[in-house]
Write a structure and sequence with these properties.
single chain; mainly alpha; two-stranded antiparallel sheet
Length: about 100
């Protein structure tokens, strides 16, 4: 577990309504979340009867696909409505891995 120093924004009655994180803590949190998503996808894949693809091979394929697509310049992505989706990489991941 990562140690996070959070600060809170409170309303006029003292109820916590927001959290403020240091940018480094925020990035660490995102990295941890990404790792958990990978673990979840791995566990899900183990229970399926789908074709087995080595992780490194899939990782290279994913990076290649992400770097090859520029949503702002691709007319097909504009047509199907993915050009303005943020973050775009999540849509690619969803297409590759399915909903997690």
């Amino acid at each position: 577990m990562i140690a996070i120093k959070e600060r809170y924004v409170v309303d006029e009655t003292g109820n916590r309504i927001s959290v403020i994180l240091d940018i480094d803590d925020y990035r660490k949190l995102l990295e941890e979340l990404e790792e958990l998503e990978c673990i979840r996808a791995y566990d899900l894949a183990k229970t399926s009867n789908d074709e087995v693809i080595p992780f490194e091979q899939l990782r290279k394929k994913t990076k290649k696909l992400k770097s090859a697509l520029d949503p702002s310049k691709d007319p097909i992505l504009k047509l199907i409505g993915l050009a303005n989706v943020e973050p775009f990489a999540d849509k690619i991941d969803e297409e590759l891995y399915g909903k997690l």
